[in-house]
Amino acid sequence: MNQLDNKTMIAHLRHLTRRGVLSNGHLQQQLRSVSYLIDQPEYSFLKDLGLERDNPGVYSGQWQGRGQSITSYDPGTGQAIATVRQGNVQELHQAVGLTVEAYKQWRQVPAPVRGEIVRQIGDELRKYKEPLGKLVSLEVGKIYSEGQGEVQEFIDICDYAVGLSRIYAGQLINSERAQHTILEAWRPLGLVGVISAYNFPNAVFGWNAAIALTTGNTVLWKGAPSTPLVSVATTKIVADVLHRNNLPPVVSLCQGGTDVGTALVADKRVNLVSFTGSCQTGRDVGVEVQRRFGKVILELGGNNALIIDKSANVKMALDAALFGCIGTSGQRCTTTRRIIVHEKLHDSFVEALTAKYAQLLPRIGHQLEADTLVGPVHTQQNVDSYKATIEEAKLLGGTVAFGGRVVQRPGHYVEPTIITGLSHDASVVHRETFAPIVYVLKTRSVDEAIAWNNEVEQGLSSAIFTENMTQAFKWIGAQGSDCGIVNINTTTNGAEIGGAFGGEKATGGGRESGSDAWKQYCKRATITLNHSGELACAQGVVFNVE
Length: 546
Description:
alpha/beta, seven-stranded mixed sheet, 16 helices, 24 strands
């Protein structure tokens, strides 16, 4: 049976079940006759992660899943990998309740001891890095090294959080009143809900979970519906560590559809919602959480620009553009979407970049093949968006300098594409398309390039290549880039965990990972301690009677 027939049969069987023609038991019997990658010897690493052909998608101390059963597909072939039984709204509410109860115990554990648990999670991830990274690649479509690198990000943030557990602190502030001391303390919020996207199904959860756990919170995760196996496998690794330490479910999972996500966002018991996704959905999430006076971290879209100054190291800039535009097949939120090149370099830069792109065509292939540098995009929806965007760009006067075609083979493959000749403010240039498409724009100056960088709705990542110190400091100053990530002589993508990750404007303003992003998972208390033995009011106010 080929992959198209396989996919069609699964969809048809589920349709019959919804209509009542087949019982759930009969459905499971029929599905056993369908071919899944997990049953093939070359994919034995899936079973090394504790996955089976059919997997429960809810964990809150025990594994279950009474919602719709969904199939995860390999975007490189279209073949079914395995299935996951999602949770329903009732199970989501149950998971919230159990994880809130776990918080009451967890918040009493000393921070360095919490850090020790996070250290063990990191060590367990090291043990399973190879198979888990391969699963990330298989289910998302990113190449082997990127899948391994994503799990490494989770490991790195665990290491960071272990150190943080011994040093995160408030401060002592001088009081204007004699024998008074002002203290500042950071305390956990409670339950942190994490809703992650398909393009980084492991690392984004890791950024949030490691820091949230260390600062005393518990975590409830809803992973992307199209990467449920990564969610299940990652949670199994974490749950094993919790079980060995006789801990309650301080981390829980509820895979599900829009109804589950909506219920999570609306639940007042979820003190902070960390959402990664589109700007429109993020806006809705932000409004809903604010309506109930909850806290929110939004990591949304990015329309990221790479500026090439006339003094730039062009060879290095070309290498940065190659990975920035094509890494993860253009599906990172930090992917380079626009290259703004000084007019003296524009034509030669485009010529050199198209030559580099041409070298990649033979290396388009399945994401787990050793020689592949360009894997598939995630779904047919990405392919359709790619095609529509290119047609729109042509109608607006753009020229396809390279690529522009769908690769005719099983799976979801497209050619990395360069488009020139468009205005900096063309509607298609101002809209983020999650595909390997870049617009090369010609500019007269760095000042003009900065203005173009800043004119889009989002403000996530940006970079300039320059050897001019004046331009470099202008770029990072108040008159420079308005993004959250402002790089010099490196890519727009591939951020490290040590700095805070996030952006401004329609990117949402949230910060995750390093620096002092841990403060977003805490509530601040200002404490005035009077050790004078007498009551004294601030600002010299006198208010008493004899």
